[in-house]
Amino acid sequence: MTGEHGGAAFIVIYLLAVVLLGYPLMVNETILGRSSQRNPVGAFRALAPGSPWWLVGALGVFTGFVILSYYVIVAGWSLAYIYKVIVSLSTPGVDHEQVFKSHITSLWEPVIWSAVFMIFTVGIIASGVVKGIQRWSLILMPVLFLIMIVLIVRSVTLPGASEGLIYYLKPDFSHVSGRTLLAALSQAFFSLSLGMGVFITYGSYLKKHDDIPGSLAWVAGLDTLIALMAGFAIFPAIFALGFNPGAGPGLVFITLPAVFAHMPFGVVFGVLFFVLLAIAALTSAISLLEVVTAWLIDEKGWARKNAAVFMGIIIFVVGLPAALGYSLFSGVSFPGLKTDILDTYDWFANCIFLPAGGLLAAVFTFSVWGTKNAVAQANKGAKGLTIGKWWSFLIRFAAPVLIAVVMIMGIYDSFVK
Fold first, then answer.
1. What CA dihedral angle connects 274, 277, 283 and 286, to 10 degrees?
2. Distance between CA 168 and CA 231 in Å, rounded?
3. What is the pLDDT of residues 98-113, one digit of tens each?
4. What DSSP letter does each residue of 124-190 carry, written as one string?
5. Which domains can be identified in the chain, with CATH numbers?
6. Which H, E and C letters describe 213-255, residue by residue?
7. Contact predicate 195/35, CB 8 Å
8. What are phi and psi for residue 106, nearest 5 degrees?
9. What is the pLDDT of residues 53-62, one digit of tens each?
10. Cβ atoms of residues 201 and 64 within 8 Å
11. How many whole angstroms separate alpha carbon 355 and alpha carbon 403?
């Protein structure tokens, strides 16, 4: 997203979105879940019985459904690259960009790897056992963090890397448009899992003494730190190795293998990186599938295993056009957007559904539930950081206005310009 929207200026806007909108809305969604102890649909029904506000929760469930349908495709790429990085790094003079293009334009490879990834996700949710993934995350995510540091050191020491650092750190706001603002806002929502029912669902599992403000500050801070570190690993290498910074999600699969090729034991680091990337993606996919599964369990009375398997199959089928968007459906685009199918899924989810969900949840809190009730609920169990009038101001005024303005500007620029 940074590469597609001009570099450092995008980063500045993204950071503002995380602080001014992301964190306050994370708190808002989490306390809606904890106070109701229900899934997104049930939460609004419990807090505003007999009203149509449950549709906001339904929007969150639907958004998580859509995002997971194409998220498993990109996650499937990371699984495939556990093997492909060995082959590409063992082949002298290989064109890493061509390797990636060959994979995504294949008719069956993306579908098969997406299916494998979805099977892993469904299996974990169906079993109801999340302690395993939590336990291993405590080990594997710090390892990913350490590998990221190694990649940053190698990337910034490549000849010509300074241009990438300037691109990443020196803002140029002359090219910022409404679409840039909307992209930064939507990326903050996507990265923090806002507007898709995740925090309402996980909030419903929390107890009264759990520290919401402090815990969520750590979540937002570490999530942003890792995102920024990824940029330091990728952009210096992009300019040093002559790649296009606006190439989209494929940059991870094109640039990093090229960096590994310039490292001692590059194959070992490459395999380990993509293993850990796949596991990190799995933890996110679990969150998304848990939202739609919890909805079927709570609202429809389904057994967990049946709900997980059913939703996993439906989501996978819905994502097939995006998986085949670079092969069978190459050239197909939504009128006006001029993007491939995967990017079209992403645009609607990120630029429409996520901001709309966050906006409506904020409106619900200040107009129906009341910010006093919300603040009291959020500060139960708070051990250091608490929320107060500043949070109420952001939820009541800043968040709805900013989100609405940015959405209108972004949609206008996307279609009209």
1. -60
2. 7
3. 999 999 999 999 999 9
4. HHHHT--HHHHHHHHHHHHHHHHHHHHHHHHHHTSTTHHHHHHHHHS--GGG--HHHHHHHHHHHHH
5. 8-415 (1.20.1740.10)
6. HHHHHHHHHHHHHHHHHHHHHHHHHHHHHCCCCCCHHHHHHHH
7. no
8. -70, 150
9. 999 999 999 9
10. no
11. 6
Residues 6+ apart with CB under 8 A from 327: 104, 105, 106, 107, 110
Q: Count H helices and E strands in the chain, helices first.
A: 19, 0
Burial 169-190 (b: 16+ CB within 10 A, else e): eeeeeeebbbbbbbbbbbbbbb
Question: Is the separation of the CB atoms in 47 and 257 below 8 Å?
Answer: no
Q: Which residues contact 288 (CB under 8 A, 6 or more apart)?
A: 64, 65, 67, 68, 71, 196, 198
The structure tokens 């050239």 sit at 331
pLDDT for position 247 = 79
Q: Tokens representing 399?
A: 């968040």
pLDDT at residue 141, rounded to an integer: 82
DSSP three-state, residue 94? coil
Tell me the pLDDT of the chain averaged across its residues: 92
- Tell which residue, 118, 116, 81, has the closest CA to residue 102: 81
Q: Which of 386, 60, 318, 323 is nearest to 193 (CA)?
A: 60
Q: What is the largest CA-CA distance in the chain?
A: 66
**What are the pLDDT digits (tens) for 242-270?**
988 987 778 889 998 999 998 888 999 99
CB 410 within 8 A of CB 179: yes
**Both tokens of residue 43?**
């939460």
Q: In the structure encoding, which two tokens stand for residue 267, read together?
A: 């194959």
SS3 122: helix
Under DSSP, the state recorded for 335 is T
By CB atoms closer than 10 A (0-12, 13-18, 19+), residue 384 is: exposed
pLDDT band at 415 (very low <50, low <70, confident <90, very high): confident
Q: Which pTM value belongs to this model?
A: 0.91
